[in-house]
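User: Here's a structure from my thesis project, written as structure tokens. My advisor, Dr. K., wants to see whether a designed sequence matches the one we expressed. Can you design one independently, without my sequence as a hint?
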């Protein structure tokens, strides 16, 4: 499984970016996919997850601003980020579900997504 993120970069506060995550050797439609981010000096946090049945989780600080989606034909997952602010500055990582994966996100309804495949990340820098 290979995961490659793209779409990061510098952006002004209030602006938008769309991150893409291309996954090879894997079906994004059959598994839970997620986006995480890690700011300097902070732990990596889950910000969005899309389960195979369409259930979606968002971390509170991104609700209403970020949207996770997927293209099953392209095996690509997206993160549309709107109204960005300085607190969104971080490295953003795409993750895919893996049996026995150690990073767990509980989506609405109680299902657990266990992430164990990771991309290398893409940097998002928001200037105020």
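Assistant: Designed independently from the structure alone:
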């Amino acid at each position: 499984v290979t995961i490659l993120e793209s779409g990061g970069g510098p952006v002004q506060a209030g602006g938008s970016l769309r991150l893409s995550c291309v996954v090879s050797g894997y079906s994004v439609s059959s598994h839970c996919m997620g986006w995480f981010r890690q700011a300097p000096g902070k732990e990596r946090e889950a910000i969005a997850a899309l389960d195979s049945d369409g259930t979606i989780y968002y971390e509170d600080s991104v609700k209403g601003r970020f949207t996770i989606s997927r293209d099953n034909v392209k095996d690509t997952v997206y993160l549309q980020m709107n109204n960005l602010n300085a607190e969104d500055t971080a490295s953003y990582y795409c993750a895919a579900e893996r049996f026995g994966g150690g990073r767990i996100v509980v989506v609405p309804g109680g299902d657990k997504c266990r992430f164990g495949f990771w991309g290398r990340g893409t940097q998002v820098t928001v200037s105020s």
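When you compare it with your expressed construct, this may help: The radius of gyration is 14 Å.
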